[in-house]
Structure formats: C-alpha cells, structure tokens
Amino acid sequence: MTDIVVNLPAFADLNFGTIVPMLVAIIGALVILCIDLVNKKLDKSLYVMLTVLFLIVDFGTLVGYSGDVRGFFDLMMIDGIAILSQGVIVIASLLFVLTAMSKLRFQEYRYPEYFALYLFMVAGFQFMVSSDSLILIFVGLETASMALYTIIAMHNRNNALEAAIKYFTMGGLATAFFAFGSMIFYALTGTVELGQISESLAASNFENYPMVLIGVVFMLGALGFKLSLVPYHTWVPDVYEGATAALAGFLSIVPKMAGFVVAIRFFEIFISSGDIYVELILYATVVLSMTIPNIIALVQNDINRMLAYSSMSNAGFAMTAILIGTTQATNALFLYWILFLVTNLGGFTMLWLNRSKDYNSFSSDHALEKYSGLIKTSPFTATMMGLFLLSLAGIPPFALFWGKLYLIGSAVNAGYMLLALIMVINAAIAGYYYLKPIVYMFLKDPIEGNNTKYMTNATTSTKVLIGFCAVVTILSIFLIEPLLEIISYYVQISGY
To answer: Over the stretch 339-397, which tens digit does the pLDDT of each residue have?
Structure first.
C-alpha cells in the first residue's frame, strides 16, 4: 500500500494570533458558564464585570496585533479594515453591556447564559469582519445570529418571543440568500475567497454576466437584511419593539458594522471595475433605504419606533460610502458610524433608564405625549434626551453633524451630485421628526395625571455612561481630526 503523506503547516506558519481576539471572547463565554455551574447564586454584576473584562482583553489583543495579514490556513485576513471594525464592534459591545448595571433585574439579566451568549455573538461578528472567505463569513454570521435570536427571546415577554421568531424567520431567509449567492460565485469562479473571486471574474471579463447579477442580488438580500436596507427592512420595527431599549440600541450599531465591512469587501469587486448595473442596483437601494424609513418616521407618535425607522435611514445614509467607493468615502463611513454609536448609545440608554417593569415603553401609541413638559418634571432627562436627538438630527456642532458632513462631502468630491442632494434632503427630513419630541419636552405643558417616573432604572454606572456620551456628543469637534487620522491609517494599509 502506498502511504499518503499530508504536509500540515507548522504551528508558527498558522499565524495563530489572527484568531486570538475571537478566542478571548469565546473563552470568556465558557468561563461564565463554568462559574455558573459551580455557584448559581452569584450576583449579575459579577457576570457584567467578567464580560467587560474579557472585552477589554479582547480589545487589547486586537490593538497589539502586529503579525501577517493572512493566517489560520489562509482563512483569516486581519488587515486595517478588520482591526478597525473589530475595534468598533468590541468597544460598542463593551459600552452597551454596561447598561445591564441598571437597578431593575429584568428577566434575561438573571441568567449568566445571557452574558455568555453576548460574548459568543461578539466573537461571531469579529469573525465576519476578519475574513474574505465566504464560508468563514457565513459561520461568523450564523454564530452571531443564533446567539442574538436567543438573547431577544430571553426578555420573556410576548412581544419579545414574537420578535425573536420574526427575526429568526427573516434571518433564515437571509442565510439562504447568502448560501445561494456564495454557491453561484463558487460555481462561476471555483473559489469562495473574495480576492480570488475578483481576480477570476476580471480575468474572464465577467463571463456569464446574468449569473453574476443573480449572485449579486442574492448577496445584497443577505447583507440588506443585516443592514436593514429597503426592501429587507420589514423585521426592524417589530424586533426593536420586542427587544429591550438597550438591546435595540445594540442592534442598530454592532450587527450593521459587521454588515458594512462584508459589503465593502464584496461590492469593491464591482465598484472598482465600474460595473454600471451593480452600481445602479446599489444606487436604488441606497436612495430607497434613506428615504422610505424617513417618510415613515415622520408619522410615528412613538419615540421608540421613530428611532427604529431612523436607524434604517442612517444605515442607508452610511451605505452611500460603499456605492461611492473612494478612500475618502470609506473613511467617512467609519467616522459616521463611530459618531452614530456614541449618539445612539446615549439615546437608547436614556430610554432604557426611563423604563420600569410595569411600563412597556413600546406599548403606547401616544408615547410622545408622555414626554410633554418633561423639562419641568425631570430637567436632566429632558436635557439629555434633547441633546442626543439634536445630534441625530445633524444639528451643528453635535457629533452626527460632522459624520453627515463628511459623507456628503465624499459624495460631492466623487461627482455624485444628485446623490449628495438626496442625502441633504433626507437629512432635512430627519431633522423635522427628531425635533418633534423636543417640542413636546420643552414647549408643552405636562399632562395632568401623568405619574410616569423618569430615571427610575438609573445607577451611578449608567449615569456615568450617559455623561460620557453627552461629553463626546458636545465636544466631538475636537475628536474629528484624531479619529480621521486613526481611520485613515487603517483604511490605507488595507488598500481601500
């Protein structure tokens, strides 16, 4: 018999450091589960602190990484975009988990499994942004999604279970789209690595182009679900309604950051080659995703649903950077999303802190009226909520104004004048409905008999979190240049 010799790479050649940040999150989840097996009576704050600790270590290993770009059987790709996006994902996850330090013990926070799933979810998103292999992106997507479905359902309310089922159903459809799209590109090119797919398609001069377009539509459907782009956005209001305000804020930031990076890597294949049909598909998707949720948000009387629709519009706004495809646009995308992170964290945390166990903040059709005269009954709450709403409206000099300015500027510099005009119009529309709650809070009288208590869920740590967001939102003008330097450095070494 002939012996078959398989030459496996040496351990050093695997560049094991590429997966260390994800391993830290996975080990952290396992440690939390093991601690619970030993002692089931520990306070939830221990699990919050353990989660924070492992996320800090995760971020440290990420910042300290200095190895080769490729690693682990060539599946991992830790370029500048991967490091930058992982940094945003880990920091955002760290900040949002601190909202669990609220006074009230809601159902899901009683279980250490919640925090273990949270870390598994973070690891999944990190895998998504750290590879150009469609298989590993798919594995990361499913890991994060399965954990997220469970976390939403753990809120243990009827609308939470309904939201989890809807999210799972739509997520299953998006998974099928991703699998079909990947299958088509593998059939056309014989590879699942985006870099090699790009080379193969270019070498064949995009032979069998109709199949390429079908593959693009499938991939756009999968990514559109994660990014809540029109027409794949129908799940968003219900899921935001069923999730806690803190988790809704998380959903508006972290999964979309992962989706943006995958979209950058995938659509760069077609944008760089000047594919007019893919550009038209993206153009239509971006314009519809900015405009339709904005129009729907205009008629919302519930501040929570209004923020849900505004997050869809913001995702469409940020998606313009991928259509434009320039280095300036990519820099503007990351700047915009970092500033959006701070503003949304503050806004959704305020909603979370104003919630009590017997008051479902999503249940009222007239939620805006509950905030009437808030400046008289709770000046701190009114001031903080007003600040974050002004930032979301793009009012200078608050944080998100600079993000919108740089994104619109990148569109103008790239010659997309009509797109820039549409962006300005949508920013003006958004300004109107963001100012509507401010009118209720500052210009109307309190409703008689409204005994709603505000900030009942607040603790010192959550107030510090709100204070941090407020300071960054107000003083963001001093942070723009340092942030752009960091972003530009990582984007340039990635070659985008």
So the answer is: 999 999 888 888 877 764 444 443 443 467 777 888 888 888 888 888 998 998 888 88
* pLDDT range class, residue 4, cuts 50, 70, 90: low
> Is the residue at 11 inside a domain?
no
Sign of CA pseudo-dihedral 70, 260, 62, 338: positive
Structure letter (DSSP) for residue 9: P
- Which residue's entry shows tokens 């944080």? 399
Reading the block at residue 281, the tokens are: 């598909």
Is residue 43 scored above 50 in pLDDT? yes
Q: Is position 189 within any domain?
A: yes
In a domain, 6, yes or no: no
- Compute the Cα dihedral for 408, 414, 419, 420 and give only its sign: positive
CA-closest candidate to residue 152, choices 236, 33, 257: 236
Across the chain, mean pLDDT equals 85
Query: How far, in Å, CA of 65 to CA of 200, rounded?
Result: 31
The Cα–Cα gap between 183 and 179 comes to 6
What is the CA angle 310-314-318, rounded to 5?
175
User: What range defines the domain where residue 213 resides?
Assistant: 17-494
Query: What is the Cα–Cα distance from 392 to 333, expressed in whole angstroms?
Result: 16
